Amino acid sequence: MRSAVAACILVVLSSGSSCPMPPTRRLLLTSDGLSTKALKDEFRRLLGDRPENKNVWYIPTAPLRDGMSMAMVERQVTMLKSEFGLRHVEIIDVEYVKGEKLRDAVKALGSLDVIWAEMGNTYALRHHLRDSGGDQLVLDALDAGALYVGSSAGSIVAGRTVQMAFWKDWDDKTAEGTIDVDWKDPKHAQGLDVGGGRSFFPHANGQFGRSSWQDAQAKKHGHTDHEVVKLADGQGFVIDGDKAYPVE
């Protein structure tokens, strides 16, 4: 975002012409999904009027590589439809739908209003978004006004680095033996970075919520150079254009 602004300023200074400002983005990042009334209310606000006309791309890649079943995914989708009045929720798994097929599947939704990145294995989600070309589709959708909703892994992947998963080290870095990535390499570990340069650390509960433990992990893994938003279960963080604030 800053580089785009700097480039715009240089164009104006050198040519005197105007240039468009970078697009604003909207995100609702959570630790454990929409688990509180405050988070549900914030989702409804960001979703806007006539939810029955909104199109949702639900990404199940993380839970399906973290011991969860398609039945669990389908229950979650059913809940989203019934509780929020969403009629069009399409499950598209970027582990299996890639390249042109992925572009066609997303295009078939028509307007893309919400991207829902579910909880589960952070590394599986990050790898397959990149490998499938999903990265660019997500960025394009956000720049066009879509809302990104992340839960746990989905929130981590939205940030600057997915090495936030190193802190607790819960996730299988091979995604059940299906991927081989050097996650210590900052380039491979780079997230979508749509959170204003921040990283996101979910499940900051109990010992993981203590600032002394968090500071030690940040120092250990080299994450003291940028802001890390810590989210306990039931908490969220919203980015809405030029506004950024916690939801509790």
UniProtKB/TrEMBL annotation:
This is Uncharacterized protein. It comes from the Eukaryota. Residues 1-18 form the signal peptide. It comes from Symbiodinium natans. One of its GO terms (molecular function) is serine-type peptidase activity. InterPro entries: Class_I_gatase-like, Peptidase_S51. Pfam families: Peptidase_S51. Keywords: Hydrolase, Protease, Serine protease, Signal. Belongs to the peptidase S51 family. The keyword Hydrolase applies. GO terms for biological process: proteolysis.
